[in-house]
Design brief:
Blueprint: H1 13-22, H2 29-42, E1 46-50, H3 53-63, E2 71-74, H4 80-89, E3 92-95, H5 107-113, E4 118-122, H6 133-142, E5 146-150, E6 158-159, E7 162-163, E8 169-173, E9 186-190, H7 193-203, H8 224-235, H9 237-255, E10 261-262, E11 270-271, E12 277-281, H10 289-298, H11 332-340, E13 341-344, H12 352-365
Helix pairs in contact: 1-8, 2-8, 3-4, 9-12
Bound molecules: pyridoxal-5'-phosphate (PLP).
Pyridoxal-5'-phosphate binds near residues 52, 79, 81 and 186.
Length: about 375
């Protein structure tokens, strides 16, 4: 079996043991070390480690002081955490459609939603490639919006040389299957000193010095053990990303021309860090997406569907007071992608021959 993801954190053993022997388990020097390394990756002045990617999003929106009725524009083609975090902030969610080429917010669709209540633009850099920040960042600046990037899947990605997480507040996930993991965890990156200060306060009960509280806060802290798990991955991030890129190139070369299948594209000026390698199975393919996924499981290839439905299209969100009525059909591109997207293994543990096997099995299954 070639699994969709493989988690390999064996090289963290000695750092984790250092923490265990030190007896200092709660946020301390190891978290600081992790943050410094992460800030270098994102190219930002600050990196604030928290206990999940969801927390990173919630804390970022809280730091911006959103009020009920303020609007956040985001993508409906995302993991549910993006939506849950906005709901938690008390703001109203407005969904724009996505672009077929990058699976991320379509700037033209965003422009149609802008209004006096719009406060935040929250693009999701899906699968490891950044949204069209060349258009989205100027649009936000022109309308005085804060940018909060959901960069959970895109650590190390760039847009015209500028790193994911450096456009405003960058939110990363360190969940077990993400490109960099601490088992559970998250990071917020920013160049804004005041927001960084506010985030550090919120993370630790609003406390400046011992028992000196400046705001109502929370406990969003990361532990030393978690930070220790992540540090070696940041040290060798270039190598890990290069392996994913090599695998993606081999997959795209091998799968090109398979009837009914479209390979993912890397858009000009963007680097892709391949959290997922996602093909589209069109209506004229020999098998439906579901049939192909089942067939590949039979053949020993793991696959994943991210995401089978638009994020608001679940009963628990219908009629939600912070989600103005929306229908899947209002998002023609995202709606189509939900039905066609299928992710194949691209992780760094794959060998060249594993990738050959994936290519051969997919091509055979689709009658190529
Ligand atoms: C993983 C993920 C999150 C949430 O991160 P957690 O660490 O699981 O809380 C948010 N948004 C996207 C797009 C993600 O993929």
């Amino acid at each position: 079996m070639i699994p969709l993801t493989v988690v390999d954190v064996r090289d963290a053993e000695s750092l984790v043991i250092d923490v265990l022997r030190s007896g200092g388990l709660a946020q301390g020097p190891m978290v600081k070390r992790f943050e410094d390394a992460f800030a270098r990756v994102a190219g930002t002045a600050h990196a604030i480690a928290v206990n999940s990617g969801t927390t990173a999003l919630v804390a970022s929106l809280q730091a911006l002081g959103l009020r009920p009725g303020d609007e956040v524009i985001t993508s409906p083609f995302t993991f549910v955490a993006t939506l849950n975090a906005i709901l938690q902030s008390g703001a109203t969610v407005r969904f724009a459609d996505v672009a077929r080429a990058d699976f991320a917010l379509d700037p033209d669709s965003v422009a149609e939603l802008l209004g006096p209540r719009t406060k935040v633009l929250l693009p999701v850099h899906l699968y490891g490639q950044m949204a069209d920040m060349g258009k989205l960042a100027p649009l936000a600046a022109e309308h005085g919006l804060h940018v909060v990037e959901d960069a959970a899947q895109s650590v190390g990605a760039t847009f015209q040389g500028q790193s994911a997480g450096s456009y405003g507040l960058g939110c990363f996930s360190l969940y077990a299957t993400k490109n960099v993991t601490t088992a559970e965890g998250g990071v917020i990156t920013t160049d804004d000193d005041e927001l960084a200060d506010r985030l550090r306060l919120l993370r630790n009960q609003g406390m400046r010095a011992r028992y000196a509280y400046e705001a109502a806060g929370y406990n969003y802290r990361m532990s030393e053990l978690h930070a220790a798990v992540g540090i070696p991955q940041l040290t060798k991030l270039d190598e890990l990303v290069a392996a994913r890129q090599r695998n993606a190139r081999q997959l795209s070369t091998g799968l090109a021309g398979t009837p009914g299948l479209a390979v993912p594209v890397v858009l000009p000026g963007r680097s892709h860090v391949w959290h997922q390698y996602t093909v589209l199975i069109g209506p004229h393919a020999m098998l439906s997406r579901e049939e192909l996924a089942a067939e590949l499981t039979e053949r020993g290839i793991g696959t994943g569907v991210y995401y089978p439905k638009l994020v608001f299209d679940h009963d628990c969100f219908r009629g939600h007071p912070q989600i103005p009525a929306v229908r899947p059909e209002d998002f023609p591109v995202a709606h189509t992608l939900c039905r066609q997207a299928l992710s194949l293994p691209v992780h760094p543990a794959l060998t060249e021959s594993d990738v050959d096997t994936i290519v051969r099995e997919v091509r055979e299954a689709l009658g190529a």
